[in-house]
């Protein structure tokens, strides 16, 4: 069975009524100022729960999320720094700026983490014109992360996909598909 199908099946098993995770995984730590936001995201967003399930599948990965305006330069609203050991992702530090929607920012940055776990080679994707853009500072932006952030934002705003009401399967499958999206607009 292809690894994508196995990953999707494990996410669905974790989120099914009989096998639900009680909340975000223990290897995802958030700033106390973000705990209520993350709890709301967990309750209302199947896409966010799928991102959490993917992170939970990597118990040697540690993800830390906090507010830190000092680390953000220029027009950046968020940044994620990755640490690898022996080519394996072991840590991701997500820093968010205040004054922007933390739901959209966090889901966007978590999708960048999931992209790395999925083995997306951003440098190659830029060369192929595959929905990835490289900024002047060397950082990358992906259509996939933009769409994930906006989708979680919509789910949280509208309360659709709450744990009590929805089967998350369509959202999980759509979020982690490799479908082609409209091109990124240059900034």
At a glance:
Helix content is 43%, strand content 17%. It contains seven helices and six strands; from the N terminus they run H-E-H-H-E-E-E-H-H-E-E-H-H.
Ends apart, CA distance between termini: 40 Å
User: What is the β-strand count?
Assistant: 6
Q: What is the string of helix and strand elements?
A: HEHHEEEHHEEHH
* Count of separate structural domains: 1
Q: What is the topology, as strand order, of the major beta sheet? A: 1-2-4-3
Low-confidence stretches: 1-19, 166-187
- Estimated helix fraction: 40-55%
Look at the structure and give the mean pLDDT.
80
* Rg over alpha carbons: 16 Å
- How many strands, what sense, and barrel or not for the largest sheet? 4 strands, mixed
Q: How many DSSP helices?
A: 7
The fraction of residues assigned to DSSP E strands is: 15-25%
Shape: globular
Alpha-beta classification = alpha/beta
């Amino acid at each position: 069975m292809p690894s994508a199908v196995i990953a999707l099946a494990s996410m669905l098993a974790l989120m099914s009524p009989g096998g639900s995770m009680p909340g975000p995984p223990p290897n995802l730590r958030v700033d106390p100022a973000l705990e209520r936001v993350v709890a709301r995201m967990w309750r209302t967003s199947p896409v966010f729960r799928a991102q959490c399930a993917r992170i939970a599948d990597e118990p040697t990965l540690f993800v830390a999320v906090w507010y830190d305006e000092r680390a953000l330069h220029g027009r950046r609203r968020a940044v994620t720094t990755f640490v690898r050991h022996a080519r394996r992702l072991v840590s991701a530090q997500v820093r968010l700026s205040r004054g922007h929607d933390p739901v959209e920012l966090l889901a966007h940055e978590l999708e960048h983490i999931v992209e790395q776990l999925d083995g997306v080679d951003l440098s190659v994707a830029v060369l192929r014109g595959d929905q990835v853009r490289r900024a002047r500072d060397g950082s990358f932006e992906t259509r996939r992360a933009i769409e994930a952030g906006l989708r979680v934002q919509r789910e949280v705003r509208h309360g659709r996909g709450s744990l009590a009401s929805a089967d998350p399967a369509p959202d999980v499958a759509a979020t982690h598909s490799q479908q082609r999206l409209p091109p990124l607009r240059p900034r």
